[in-house]
Amino acid sequence: MSLTDVCLQNTNDSFEDMTDDFSKFHDALLELIKSFEQENVLVKAHSDLDSKIIRIYGERSDALALAKAGLEEVGELAYTTAEHHPYWNMLYNGSQILKIVLEKWNQTLTEEELKEISWYTDEIKNSIKNLVTRNE
User: Which of 46, 61, 76 delimits the end of a domain?
Assistant: First the structure.
């Protein structure tokens, strides 16, 4: 067996170990959640095992709260990507529009907020024009 083969096998074994470890953690977490349910503490868990993501919510979490939490993660991607990615500007400005909308979901948007949304929309349009130009 060559050194490359050994390295590849070690990498595959490590990946499988991480997958197994995450799977074990996931299973243990589900058991913990069940134990809390027996104490009448309801918790929601949504898992994406392929991405190794588990989200845990309280029983009274509503769709708006979940959307705001997800948007925070989108914002984090926009902030950490910065201008190094060609879609950064669209992601950032789109997330800013959504942030305003979600914050005012049960209220009326002010004229100032509508102007701000319009400005973000113009920024998205400019980004699209720049991408079209680059692709030509």
Answer: 61
